[in-house]
């Protein structure tokens, strides 16, 4: 197996060799991409040999075999529901080797859901090493395109999220929260590439307001040292800019006086920020002058003039935020550096300054064993993707290995991990864009079945249908029925929010009060999964849901428009989500009234069944 680049020692001399570190990382990438199939065989063999006696593999009759052909013949391709009983046993305290020979150290909560609750992905301690490895490759790659980044700081808005404990005592939390709370991040050795404006204490503060306020304040205090800015998702970075737009007078006051706002009460945060914050009337005046201007176009380059690029995810549903980012950044390069999920960290972007539409990721073959399920477009007009939920025996045999994918073809990603997932369907659809040596590079196309997304939330068509079905019961006393509906993720507001367009048939004589439509909004939100409800109630990353009532005949007009573009009248179905700007404009032009959810839906950390166990 190729040797991963070594970490820097904790104590380093002033002439810490960035160039040597970069060279090792780039050599590692060259090495693993030159022989991906050979490495993938070794990875699978290692995973299967160390887990030979786990219950799951024995149940399927693998009998200690470690070769690829036997594995593919015997082990089924699965989705989360197929292992949910095993996951629940581990969550409830069963410590026997069910999925993995190594102890499960915690669960990583996926943004994908099952039965309305976050999926729980098992992980083991050594996975932190693999995640750290992938992070260590990012800046050596970036340095080839933007040299000198080790001479300044990165202003990254990073946050932890709520965590819970399973009945068996294991922590369940998002993968980034797990990483930020680990010693790999908190006690990371000196590295000029992880020199951030935000002290660890501000990142690890569980109060989202205090965390955001203190991170923005530190970024302003160190504005001349900032060479790159970013967050995980584009939506999160835009929220930080909007936070500055709202709170800059208070931030300027702190900078002017060198004192920290009394609303920041966390002692460790106060101590860390006050090491950076000093009275600076000149800087306060500068920030005040820029923020007072009517237009905020280019505010990033005005306040942080040395910034070279914006490091955020803008692929998939995050692409909807590109125009807003361009506006605030004056067109700075938007950089997507890596591809990862709760199940596994996958790969890196080796051409980070490419256009967002051209982003491709090179999967690092040492991270896990990768397979690819071919997918097909099933509708020329809607460009929808056909990925079956359950696979026939023939389809199970159609999966191809990393080294065997074909240029231009689309696949659903399937992974086998060191932590106990075997032939697990991640749900991401990828297209082969090219090759680095012998290793394929993939465009991220979409998340399977997702119709609506604002932040990390993912709402599919079935969930949307059920939510609408629950909501329309509020209309029954008024003899009103829902004729047709569609939806839209509106990101022109910050935070973005879901919009439902409803066409009604009202037979009753009593007018429907606005409060009833507001109840419909809330009922819809209450029916959504826990990731959406957390985004609304806790993270404040999603705005109140809006229902827009449209004129009678609107959806007939929508069908006419689709047919004019080439849709078949015999096969036309109302789309449950719209993105195409002219269609959104058509719908908005026929709105007669609109209503917002009056309050946040209920949400609590953990799974509902855990709450029931605690209360019983």
From TrEMBL:
Annotated Pfam families: GH3, GH3_C, GH3_M
InterPro entries, per database record: GH3 (IPR004993), GH3_C (IPR055378), GH3_M (IPR055377)
Keyword Transmembrane: no
One Gene Ontology term, aspect cellular component: cytoplasm
Key words, A-Z: Ligase
Chain ranges of the GH3 middle domain: 361-447
Residues covered by the GH3 C-terminal domain: 463-580
Single GO molecular function: indole-3-acetic acid amido synthetase activity
Family: Belongs to the IAA-amido conjugating enzyme family.
Protein name: Indole-3-acetic acid-amido synthetase GH3.6
Organism: Heracleum sosnowskyi
Lineage start: Eukaryota, Viridiplantae, Streptophyta, Embryophyta, Tracheophyta
């Amino acid at each position: 197996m190729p040797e991963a680049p070594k970490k820097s020692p904790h104590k380093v001399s002033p002439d810490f060799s960035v160039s040597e570190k970069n060279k090792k990382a780039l050599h590692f990438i060259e090495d693993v991409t030159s022989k991906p199939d050979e490495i993938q065989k070794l990875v699978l063999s290692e995973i299967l040999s160390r887990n030979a006696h786990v219950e799951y593999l024995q149940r399927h009759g693998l009998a200690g075999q470690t070769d690829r052909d036997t594995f593919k013949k015997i082990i089924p391709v699965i989705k989360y529901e197929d292992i949910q009983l095993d996951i629940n046993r581990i969550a409830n305290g069963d410590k026997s080797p069910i999925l993995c020979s190594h102890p499960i150290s915690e669960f990583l909560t996926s943004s994908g859901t099952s039965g309305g609750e976050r999926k729980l992905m098992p992980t083991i301690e050594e996975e932190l090493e693999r995640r750290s490895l992938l992070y260590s490759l990012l800046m050596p790659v970036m340095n080839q395109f933007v040299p000198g980044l080790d001479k300044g700081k990165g202003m990254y808005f990073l946050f932890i999220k709520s965590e819970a404990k399973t009945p068996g005592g294991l922590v369940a939390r998002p993968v980034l929260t797990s990483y930020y709370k680990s010693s790999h991040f908190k006690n990371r050795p000196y590295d000029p590439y992880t020199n951030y404006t935000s002290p660890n204490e501000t990142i690890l503060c569980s109060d989202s307001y205090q965390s955001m306020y203190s991170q923005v304040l530190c970024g302003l205090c160190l504005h001349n040292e900032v060479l790159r800015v970013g967050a995980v998702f584009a939506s999160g970075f835009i929220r930080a800019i909007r936070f500055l737009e709202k709170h800059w007078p208070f931030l300027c006051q702190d900078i002017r006086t060198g004192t920290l706002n009394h609303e920041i009460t966390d002692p460790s945060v106060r101590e860390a920020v006050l090491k950076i914050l000093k009275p600076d009337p000149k800087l306060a005046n500068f920030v005040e002058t820029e923020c007072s201007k009517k237009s905020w176009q280019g505010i990033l380059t005005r306040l942080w003039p040395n910034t070279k690029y914006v490091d955020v995810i803008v692929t998939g549903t995050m692409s909807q935020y590109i125009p807003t980012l361009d506006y605030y950044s004056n067109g700075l390069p938007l950089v997507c550096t890596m591809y990862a999920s709760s199940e596994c960290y996958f790969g890196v972007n080796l051409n980070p300054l490419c256009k967002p539409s051209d982003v491709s990721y090179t999967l690092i073959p040492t991270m896990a064993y990768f397979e690819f399920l071919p997918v097909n477009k099933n509708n020329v007009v809607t460009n929808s993707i056909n990925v079956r939920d359950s696979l026939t025996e023939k389809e199970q045999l159609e999966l191809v290995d990393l080294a065997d994918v074909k240029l231009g073809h689309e696949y659903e990603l399937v992974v086998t991990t060191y932590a106990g997932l075997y032939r697990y369907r991640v749900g991401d659809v990828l297209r082969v864009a090219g090759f680095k040596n012998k290793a394929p590079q993939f465009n991220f196309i979409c998340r399977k079945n997702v119709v609506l997304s604002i932040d990390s939330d993912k709402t599919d068509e079935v969930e949307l249908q059920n939510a609408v079905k629950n909501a329309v019961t509020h209309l029954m006393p008024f003899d009103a029925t829902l004729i047709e509906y569609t939806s839209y993720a509106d990101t022109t507001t910050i935070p973005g929010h879901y919009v439902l367009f409803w066409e009604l048939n009202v037979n009753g004589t009593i007018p429907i009060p606005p409060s009833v439509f507001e109840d419909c909004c809330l009922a819809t939100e209450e029916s959504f999964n826990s990731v959406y409800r957390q985004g609304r109630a806790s993270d404040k990353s999603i705005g109140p849901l809006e229902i827009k009532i449209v004129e009678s005949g609107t959806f007939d007009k929508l069908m006419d428009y689709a047919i004019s573009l080439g849709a078949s009248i015999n096969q036309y179905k109302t789309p449950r989500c719209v993105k195409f700007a002219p269609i959104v404009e058509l719908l908005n032009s026929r709105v007669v009234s609109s209503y917002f959810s009056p309050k946040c839906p209920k949400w609590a950390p953990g799974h509902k069944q855990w709450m029931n166990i605690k209360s019983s």
